[in-house]
Amino acid sequence: MGWLPGKPHDCPCTRDHTSRRHFNKYECEAIATSLWNDLPAAPPDVHIIDHAINELPSNPQRYCPYWPSLLSILWQVECLVRPEIQFPEDLDPGALWRTHSLPHNQPAS
Fold first, then answer.
1. CA neighbours closer than 13 Å in the CB half-sphere of residue 21
2. Rounded to whole angstroms, how far apart are CA atoms 101 and 61?
3. What is the rounded distance in angstroms from the CA atom of residue 80 to the CA atom of residue 11?
């Protein structure tokens, strides 16, 4: 998440401008805290989104339980950074991966 499109502008949450620092847990009130809480805890000095992406399973057959929340956060960041564009909302984020992954108790081949 080292690059965000567009130039920083006031965030609709009114707490700060759109930036990497602002789009973090407990910073931007425009992104639901429950979504951030679904992500794995990040070590100090590591951005929670970077950490969540790095912790994704390397085996695509293994579904990641926080994937829908991560997708929702990234969609919201995109909408907040580029408010002049109407991005379509995914009503069931992560459904494709969930549908095509193995059950939790089934070993991957």
1. 4
2. 4
3. 7
